[in-house]
Write a structure and sequence with these properties.
Elements lengths: L2 H10 L5 H32 L5 E9 L3 E10 L5 E4 L2 H8 L3 E8 L3 E13 L9 E11 L4 E8 L8 E6 L5
């Protein structure tokens, strides 16, 4: 009698069709190939739209424990400002050493002016506490290599107000 339940279970298992296994394997390979083709197409499109000689990518980061960014505006030269409002979860991700790609653009080699403005509050601030506001303006030099810049919102020390710095992550020339 002890053998009967195992025997009943064995009879309930349907045999696997080798043809359906092969079909499933082929479908999985096709899915992987489609994803690979899509990734290569996106890379090709990005290289076409933003060639290395003119590409500038600007990221935003936060280096201040508990500082939640509410909004950020970045303008390069006198172009159209790029504005972004952050919800609480996005602001938390940024202050935990995340980066946000704020702007990708083409710029000719040479000097370019960048302006950044932000507003932020500390996570433990009272609802009626006005936000910190910061503004930054600087000039960066674009070479013929791709430029990766970071607008970093930081606090220099305890009790100090948040400020903006510009980091240039350019590879060695």
């Amino acid at each position: 009698m002890a053998c009967l339940p195992g025997l009943a279970h064995a009879a309930a298992v349907e045999p696997v069709d080798p043809g359906s296994q092969e079909l499933d394997r082929v479908i999985q390979e096709l899915k992987a190939e489609v994803l690979d083709i899509n990734q290569r197409a996106l890379s090709t499109e990005a290289a076409f739209l933003y060639p290395d000689a003119t590409r500038v990518t600007i990221y935003a980061g936060v280096k201040a424990q508990g500082l939640l960014i509410e909004d950020l505006t970045i303008t390069v030269d006198d172009g159209t400002p790029t504005q972004r409002k952050f919800d609480t979860l996005e602001a938390i991700a940024l202050q935990r050493k995340g980066l946000y790609r704020a702007v990708r653009l083409n710029a000719a080699p040479g000097a370019h002016r960048i302006r950044a403005e932000f507003s932020a509050r500390y996570a433990d601030a009272q609802p009626n506490t006005p936000p910190f506001r910061g503004r930054y303006e600087a000039v960066f030099e674009k070479t013929t290599k791709p430029s990766d810049l970071e607008v970093l919102i930081a606090v220099e020390g305890y009790g100090k107000v948040p400020v903006i710095k510009l980091r240039d992550w350019r590879t060695a020339q």
